[in-house]
Specification:
heterotrimer, A alpha/beta (496), B mainly alpha (100), C alpha+beta (520), B: 100 residues, mainly alpha, 4 helices, 2 strands, 34% helix, flat, C: 520 residues, alpha+beta, Arc Repressor Mutant, subunit A, 3-stranded antiparallel beta sheet, 16 helices, 17 strands, binds magnesium ion, binds zinc ion
């Protein structure tokens, strides 16, 4: 095959790209230019990127092609076009977090996960749009304008890693990295019909990703197949001595056993989550149907309630903003970032630089988090949330005594219209009701497409939850479901 | 527990945000709405429950006392809004001198 | 400050003092949470990285050696080591603090519940007015020289130091009046150990002794150079006064910028008198932070904003807790060196040194090591003259040159050799002084200097007799006067003989021969 056809390129898996380069079917440089051609065509409508990095991509491609010419062994993701959420540092790029306060900020060091993906041979195509500082579930809270869902340009791609999701969904890149604090990978994954994974907390180094909530953040991939997700995780997982919360757990080859099927696996559906008020009937139906498929494949499907997880959203909206308010203190106009002009003194400089530099949602969360930690309120808010977190973690631990994986919807609805929830922070927060408990408990979760809406044709995802450090079993279930459903998740891209 | 306008102003100062009166009023309403939705959590019986800072039971994560290369001064100052003689420039400081 | 003014005030008021002592762990290679080197000075912003500059995305990883050093310090002052501890974030905005929060410890510090016993002797004893009443349970011992009192150590925790600012356009580099400031983050992230004492200190002298004692302990542990001048040891004091007999504590003020032991004493003395005067005049003390002006010898209030501090401490989410097992703690304890008190006692016991000399020597571990190296060469019989040299001319030389032991031209072996040359009569003590000066400039060994200069002391009695005879023959009038009873002339004769012998005559022998011949 050739790569002259854009649609061909957009269908290729990571493995197919590497194999094609190895066999000489095409070069890494051709892959890079195919990616940029597709971006040229689609980006004006979708706006998945804050920055494109053709020079970095060309250099990386040239290194791969030189290895081919020299007959050297290629790394596992050789020539695979990759994009990174714009909260990940990469030398030679800006890292803006889609915020006015970091608009001109240039990275002076590399995020470890990004570095590992590039060391595995991936081509850095660009930096993706996001909700400012990852605060949001729609990628509308970007200082540089919203990203649109490739399935319907009037709709959001989800968020906060909406740019990373849209870039993969639209076939502009093969893989991308996002960050997930309360669902910011999985929810946009569901809304764009991509495979989207949050690994176990501590599995992937957080060094170099601009922190939102340090105890919840985790980097993970968007891909168009479960196998690609496993390959990306292979590249980025493992201990990093630059991150004190990164674990030393052994890292298996996550592609091993993907095809082993689900026979005999104990699959628990979280009944009270599926039945949650606010979960769209079509999402509920899609989840039930995915379960039925797994049962057909030989899984032992059972039911469980996780009543403590109902409090997850509340705990999250204290812990997340509290940590964020602290993590975002450093954006003060002293060493980098936006500085308000003509400050009378340092206090004035702080007050105006931050008020002018941060967007509305960032200010809301900083205020909420500062209040929750302030004198006299700590116990009622932060302390209570951390104890609730204990109960949620225990509840999951008990559930994993009975089940190998748990199943919930990923998001309560399909992609919503741009602007639909913009004025109502609470309804926006509810988008993450299924994903948040995992961050609190540190568990891995993956969203895989399980249906398309009968009315809108929009993708619906199902969330598979694994036990701590058992991404392998989770990926195996995801892979079985993917194979059995055999859905075509190519967005129609009508109107482009 | 609802948050008063004075609370909002106090928090804004703590967070170093120069907010307009309009913003203060809107934030008061929004914060109260959000805090109202977490009251069910505060009603939980959490007697004797230990708080969890991290869900992963890691302990004693340290690094060996080894020097690693840092940044050149050019890179350190690359993003500085204002620099002079290799240092970051800030306007005058009014108020208390803090210490470690 | 006149001493009697302080004692006069202390007769009526009791001072209650607690100290906070910040010590940079300067002997570590790298900073608290990153791999940048720990060093003093240098061009601004040349020892920085993403972590200590607080760049977006950078994460702190604690330095293992800093944790160990802090636990070692805790054990050295009898602290309990917490089985479970962690770092917290202390949040406030300040331009020298890159992340706008300081990683510190809050309710779960590494060490707590310790104590240090301090000896007060000499002039400082007079400050302790209530000594005879012995009201303090902490008073352990007293004798004619002074007393020993116990100061509680509330806690020792670990944190990161801030950067440094240079204030431009104001006077003397102070903040007030400055036009703008320059920030250098070289120091940011230096491991900083904070020790908080109980308010067990009653006099400025006790405060000074306490700080000096901690310095001597930390030097012995080898964890810091404890330089108050360079700021690697910084002492803040909380001080209040209350009328004698009153149980309720007075309102305290916090004194900063005491950058020498003398300043520490003087600033606290000033503040005690100031507070007493304020109360005497019917005023009241406000809780505030005050800055000591070394030039003006007074404290003054720092301008402070109305905003009350709310540090919003919470557990550092970029780090995980510490759990120390008893085995691990015992492993650290096994590293404890001989501490200054034990070393002092050994010096007294083994070398017969006066207690004061022994304490001075033991207070500076590397100085004590220097002494021990020398005494190993000379043997204990020369320990006393060795100490006199070490604390006398040798210390004076280091101070005058402003150099450390490591930079000294005079090694312990050289000093030992000098003391031996004097001890065995090869040269006189007076010649020794000349030789010592030569050692400090040339770096030559004393034996070589003596040989080169032909400085050997003449103990040959024939030569001395001959010289005495020559002097007596040349001075018949003086001989007559002497013999007529003006025996004070003996000194003049010694001088003449020594000049005749070019200063090399053994003074003891010269005296002896002169006396014999003149009295004959
Ligand atoms: Mg402190
Ligand atoms: Zn550093």
């Amino acid at each position: 095959m050739t790569v002259s056809s854009l649609s061909d390129f957009s269908q290729l898996s990571a493995r197919a790209i590497r194999d094609g380069i190895v066999s000489g079917e095409f070069s890494a440089a051709e892959i890079a230019s195919a990616a940029y051609s597709r971006i040229d065509a689609l980006e004006p409508d979708i706006h998945a990127f804050n920055e494109l990095t053709p020079q970095l991509a060309e250099e990386a491609a040239a290194r791969i092609d030189a290895k081919v010419a020299a007959g050297e062994l290629l790394p596992p993701l050789a020539g695979v076009p990759a994009a990174f959420k714009d909260n990940m540092n990469l030398v030679g790029t800006h890292t803006t977090c889609s915020s006015r306060i970091l608009k001109n900020y240039q990275s002076v060091y590399d995020c470890s996960a990004v570095r590992r993906l590039l060391d595995a041979g991936a081509l850095p195509i660009g930096k993706c749009n996001m909700d400012e500082f990852a605060f949001g579930s729609s990628t509308e809270n970007s200082a540089f304008g919203p990203t649109r869902n490739p399935w319907d340009l009037d709709r959001v791609p989800g968020g906060s890693s909406g740019g990373s999701a849209a870039a993969v969904a639209a076939g502009m890149v093969t893989v991308s990295l996002g960050s997930d604090t309360g669902g910011s990978i999985r929810q946009p994954g569901a809304l764009t019909g991509t495979v989207a994974m949050k690994p176990t907390y501590g599995r992937v180094s957080r060094y170099g990703i601009v922190a939102f909530a340090s105890s919840l953040d985790q980097i993970g991939p968007f891909t168009r197949s479960v196998e690609d997700a496993a390959m990306v995780l292979n590249a980025i997982a493992g201990h990093d001595d630059m991150d004190a919360t990164s674990v030393r757990e052994a890292v298996p080859d996550f592609t091993v056993g993907l095809g082993d099927g689900v026979k005999g696996l104990r699959v628990g559906v979280v009944r009270d989550m599926v039945d949650l008020e606010g979960c769209a009937p079509e999402v509920r139906a899609a989840t039930e149907s995915a379960l039925a498929t797994l049962a057909t494949l030989g899984a032992e499907v059972g039911e469980i309630d996780l009543p403590m997880s109902q409090h997850g959203l509340a705990a999250y909206y204290i812990i997340g903003p509290a940590e964020a308010s602290s993590n975002l203190a450093r954006f003060d106009g002293i060493r980098y970032g936006y500085r308000a002009p003509d400050a009378a003194d340092v206090l004035d400089l702080y007050m105006r630089s931050r008020a002018e530099g941060f967007g509305a949602e960032s200010i809301r969360r900083i205020m909420l988090g500062t209040h929750a930690l302030s004198s006299g309120y700590y116990d009622a808010y932060y302390g209570t949330a951390q104890k609730t977190r204990t109960l949620i973690t225990r509840e999951f631990a008990a559930a994993f005594e009975r089940f190998d994986v748990l199943i919930t919807p990923t998001a309560p609805t399909v992609a919503f219209k741009i602007g639909e929830k913009a004025e109502d922070p609470l309804s926006m927060y509810l988008s993450d009701v299924y994903t948040i408990p995992l961050n609190l408990a540190g568990l891995p979760g993956i969203s895989v497409p399980c249906a398309k809406s009968a009315t809108t044709g929009l993708p619906i995802g199902v969330q598979i939850i694994g036990n701590h450090f058992d991404e392998s079993t989770m990926l195996r279930v995801a892979s079985a479901l993917e194979a059995a459903l055999a859905l075509d998740m190519t967005p129609p891209l009508t109107g482009i | 527990m609802s948050i008063s306008e004075a609370d909002v102003r106090h928090v804004a100062l703590l967070a170093r945000l120069a907010l307009s009166d309009e913003q203060i009023v809107r934030l008061q309403a929004e914060l109260n709405s959000i805090l109202g939705h977490i009251e069910h959590m505060q009603a939980l019986d959490l007697e004797g429950v230990e708080p969890t800072s991290h869900s992963i039971p890691l302990r004693n994560a340290t690094r060996p006392d080894v020097v690693r290369p840092g940044l050149s001064r050019e890179l350190a100052l690359l993003n500085a809004p204002e620099a002079e003689n290799g240092a970051f420039v800030i306007p005058r400081i009014v108020g208390a001198e803090e210490g470690a | 400050m006149a001493k009697d003014r302080l004692t006069e005030v202390l007769e009526r008021y009791e001072a209650v003092i607690g100290l906070e002592i910040h010590t940079e762990l300067t002997s570590l290679n790298s900073k608290m949470f990153c791999g940048c080197p720990v060093a003093f000075g240098g061009e601004p912003n040349t020892r920085v990285c993403p972590v200590c500059l607080g760049l977006p995305g950078a994460l702190p990883v604690p330095n293992e050696a800093a944790v160990e050093a802090t636990v070692l310090a805790g054990l050295s002052v009898e602290c309990a080591i917490a089985p479970y501890s962690q770092f917290h974030r202390k949040q406030y905005f300040y331009p020298d603090m890159p992340k706008d929060y300081q990683i510190s410890q809050y309710d779960l510090p590494f060490c707590g519940f310790g104590h240090v016993d301090i000896e007060v002797d000499g002039d400082g004893v007079a400050e302790r007015i209530d000594l005879d009443a012995a009201v303090s349970a902490n008073l352990l011992e007293r004798d004619s020289d002074g007393y020993v009192t116990r100061i509680g150590v509330t806690r020792i925790h670990l944190e990161e130091d801030t950067g440094k600012m240079v204030h431009v356009g104001g006077s003397e580099g102070r903040i007030s009046g400055a036009d703008h400031s320059l920030v250098d983050f070289n120091r940011a992230g230096t491991p900083l150990m904070e020790l908080v004492s109980e308010p067990d200190i009653r006099t400025p002298e006790e405060a000074r002794r306490f700080a000096q004692k901690l310095r001597s302990i930390f030097l012995a542990l080898g964890i810091s150079d404890c330089s108050m001048e360079e700021g690697s040891m910084r002492v803040d004091g909380n001080v209040s006064v209350r009328p004698r007999g009153q149980v309720e504590l007075g309102t305290k003020s916090e004194i900063k910028n005491m950058n020498s032991f003398k300043t520490l004493h003087d600033a606290l003395a000033y503040e005690i008198v100031r507070q007493a005067d304020e109360i005497d005049a019917g005023g009241r003390i406000v809780q505030e932070t005050r800055h000591y002006d070394v030039g003006a010898k007074r404290t003054s209030a720092l301008r402070s904003k109305e905003e009350a501090h709310d540090y919003r401490y919470f557990p550092e989410p970029d780090m995980v807790p510490f759990e120390f097992t008893p085995e691990w703690i015992e492993g650290i304890r096994a590293r404890l060196p001989e501490l200054p008190d034990a070393r002092r006692d050994r010096f007294v016991r083994d070398f017969g040194l006066p207690k004061g000399d022994a304490r001075t020597l033991a207070a500076d571990a590397s100085f004590a090591d220097f002494f021990e190296e020398a005494v190993a060469l000379t043997g204990p019989s020369l320990a006393k003259p060795l100490v006199n040299w070490a604390l006398g001319d040798f210390s004076a030389y280091l101070n005058a040159e402003g150099i450390s032991l490591g930079e000294s031209r005079v090694t312990s072996a050289m000093l030992a050799e000098l003391v031996e040359l004097i001890g065995d009569g090869t040269i006189s003590g007076k010649q020794g002084k000349v030789v010592f000066v030569e050692m400090t400039t040339s770096g030559d060994a004393p034996g070589a200097i003596v040989a080169l200069r032909g400085m050997k002391q003449v103990s040959d009695s024939d030569a001395i007799e001959a010289a005495v005879d020559r002097v007596m023959a040349a001075s018949p009038a003086e001989v007559a006067n002497y013999r007529a009873g003006k025996t004070t002339l003996i000194g003049w004769f010694v001088g003449q003989v020594m000049r005749e012998m070019k200063g090399q005559g053994n003074p003891g022998l010269v005296n002896e021969v002169l006396a014999r011949k003149l009295d004959a």
